[in-house]
Design goal:
mainly alpha; single chain; 75% helix
């Protein structure tokens, strides 16, 4: 690793009892979630508070108060011990008092103070697991609820601009809104985290510990390794599979990038280029069906659209995105004169499938159950069962095919048990950050509902854009980038859709599902857009390159993240369905536009492009996005003429060399 990369402090080791406590709590949380998902569904005022209590305890155990790089010490354990007890109290309070809470008109003082405690521990947990930015935003919204003409923080009233001012609320009203109903912390975001998201995060953990990650990476290498720029193309394909499973672009980078980035560098890609390609491909994993990270489950709840419908309408845009990254990778490889890897360096597709074909069964089962109409939570439960069954069957088949012994059988069972516990703990650990982000998002949702901030924000957005849809979408993009500097993707999506969703749907007439898809796609840009590009930074750490240079490369390769949502807005028939000829036409011109854009960006297709060809392609791409058939046809004609000239020139060069 070069000296240009950021050197992170080494994490202080946790004492043994803390590690055991994390293991026990994590396994208990996963078992509780499996029980609720597959055996006995629970009411929301049982499921969500208990889930939050487990997550808080796990958060304060995993993340010490003074940071993970410093020993906790006596003072740290005193603070964290108190917060762990508070987390248990928060998780138990509503379920134990549900009858009283449901039948009272005004909250008791003890309910109000428990609400205050809940808000405090949620904000502190988010600071540790998500980052200080999330806590600041949550605290700002709470302060906004108190502020107003008759609020308990009157000194803020004069500071508020006119349109943002409101009547203001007292402590009992804010605490009740946050913790005694389904409109605050225990609202939709945490509800989705406590049901759909957790069970699929756990599904990903089971795939990871059973070796599915290596299988998908090897399969990608076997399929593309011999082509030009093979390792980079393998990174694109492997990231499409792994990103959908992991639900995290950064986790995807460090998982697949550990294999792909060194091979890309060996083949001839510059370190920053290799890290940027991996970051761009890994970011696409979160928009790739069937799992799509956490956002698709939230989208399903917000739009009241069946999850399987969201998966189906997301397939073509995701293919467009990965196709654009794949094409840019191919052009870069041809431009730099790269070759593929030799057959001796690569596994064969047949041997990879023979070794790991059983990992395809859980994905087939998952897809079939979704199409069959099962709820996402039940689908996740059965998907986990299918992973365990497939891995167990494979292990037993191998065992009995190789002179089985009783001692070997006992050892096999012990290994299976250990891997199961490892997956249960890993799933719980991986869910902490998402659940904490969703809990704070619940605070934001509660305040927006209490104060009417969403309608006010929409009015401001319309005023700033002057009623122009393109300007409004640019404002959404800028807002997503700013939010993404301090928030993870899921949290940025929730905050943005709450604030700008009403304007996009009601004022600009965008269908609700497309509005959510656009905001969800734009929320991914913080992973690849400087100055804060988290997936790019992770790629730089592995590639040994400068973080900012790597982020610029990631930004270049992820351009589909900005163009494809625009195409969704102006060609909604390809997403929502329409006359078949129109859908086919829209799909074809989308591919043409992305090919032209990639060629203009790289300055190369079949041969180097003169500057006039690159400049002339830009209006052609814009014309294809224009919602007018004649303009689209003109754009397609212009692009095909320029690309044809490039191909003809390349053919002439080949003939001259011959």
């Amino acid at each position: 690793m070069s000296g240009d990369t950021e050197i992170r402090p080494v994490e202080a080791p946790q004492p043994r009892f803390a590690l055991r406590a994390i293991t026990v709590v994590g396994i208990a949380l996963s078992l509780f979630q499996l029980y609720a998902a597959g055996l006995q569904p629970l009411g929301l005022f049982f499921q969500r508070p208990i889930h939050l209590g487990f997550i808080l305890v796990l958060c304060f155990l995993i993340y010490p108060v003074f940071g993970r790089h410093r020993p906790r010490g006596a003072l740290g354990w005193a603070i964290d011990g108190a917060l762990i007890v508070a987390g248990v109290a928060v998780g138990a309070w509503v379920p134990l008092n549900i009858d009283i809470i449901a039948n009272q008109i005004f909250p008791r003082d003890i309910d109000v103070w428990m609400g205050v405690l809940t808000m405090i521990v949620v904000l502190e947990g988010a600071r540790r697991a998500v980052g200080f930015g999330m806590t600041i935003i949550g605290a700002f919204f709470i302060a906004y609820a108190f502020a107003g003409s008759r609020g308990e923080l009157p000194f803020l009233a004069d500071w508020m601009p006119g349109i943002l001012n409101h009547r203001g609320y007292g402590l009992d009203r804010v605490a009740s809104q946050m913790t005694l109903g389904a409109e605050g912390i225990y609202g939709i975001p945490l509800g989705v985290a406590a049901t759909f998201i957790f069970v699929f995060v756990l599904f990903g953990a089971f795939l990871e510990v059973t070796g599915a990650g290596k299988f998908f990476i090897d399969l990608a290498y076997a399929a593309t390794g011999r082509q030009r720029g093979g390792p980079a193309k393998a990174a694109v394909i492997a990231s499409a599979g792994m990103g959908s499973i992991s639900g995290s672009a950064i986790a995807n980078v460090v998982t697949t990038g550990a294999f792909t980035i060194p091979l890309m560098k060996k083949l001839g890609y510059r370190p920053a280029q290799a890290g940027g390609i991996e970051a761009a491909a890994s970011t696409g994993g979160q928009i790739m069906p069937p799992l799509m990270g956490a956002g698709a489950f939230l989208m399903s709840e917000f739009t009241r659209t069946p999850y399987v419908d969201i998966v189906l309408v997301s397939i073509f845009p995701a293919i467009l995105y990965f196709g654009a990254v794949y094409l840019l990778v191919h052009i870069a490889a041809v431009k730099q004169g790269m070759t593929g890897m030799s057959a001796e360096e690569l596994p064969s597709v047949r041997s990879v499938l023979a070794e790991g074909w059983h990992f395809l069964l859980p994905l087939v089962a998952l897809t079939w159950l979704l199409v069959a109409g099962y709820s996402p939570m039940r689908v996740g439960f059965y998907a986990i069962v299918s992973v365990v069954a497939a891995a167990s069957a494979k292990a037993l088949w191998t065992f009995f095919a190789n002179q089985p012994t009783w001692g070997g059988f006992v050892s096999l069972c012990k290994r299976g048990f250990d891997l199961t516990l490892q997956a249960l703990e890993l799933g719980a650990r991986n869910a902490v950050a998402v659940s904490m982000a969703c809990a704070v998002a619940g605070i934001i949702v509660g305040v927006v509902g209490l104060t009417g901030l969403g309608l006010k924000f929409s009015a401001m957005m319309i005023a700033f854009s002057g009623g122009n849809l393109v300007l409004a979408l640019i404002l959404v993009l800028i807002a997503s980038l700013i939010l993404g500097m301090g928030l993870p993707v899921t949290a940025a999506y929730i905050v943005l859709i709450i604030l700008v969703g009403p304007a996009l749907t009601e004022e600009f007439g965008i269908p609700i599902l497309i509005a959510h898809l656009v905001v969800f796609w734009y929320s991914q840009d913080s992973n690849v857009t400087p100055p804060v590009a988290l997936a790019g930074f992770a790629g730089a750490a592995i590639a040994g390159s400068k973080p900012m240079e790597t982020s610029v490369q990631a930004w270049k390769y992820a351009k589909g993240l900005y163009l494809i949502p625009l195409f969704m807005v102006f060609n909604e028939e390809i997403i929502l369905g329409g006359p078949l000829p129109l859908v086919i036409w829209s799909g074809v011109i989308a591919v043409i536009a992305l090919v032209a854009f990639a060629a203009a960006l790289e300055g190369f297709l079949w041969r180097a492009m003169p500057i006039w060809q690159r400049v002339a392609l830009v209006p052609g791409v814009i014309a294809i996005f224009w919602p007018d058939l004649m303009v689209e046809v003109a754009g397609v004609a212009l692009i095909l003429a320029i690309l044809g000239a490039n191909w003809w020139g390349a053919r002439g060069e080949v003939a001259a060399r011959a």
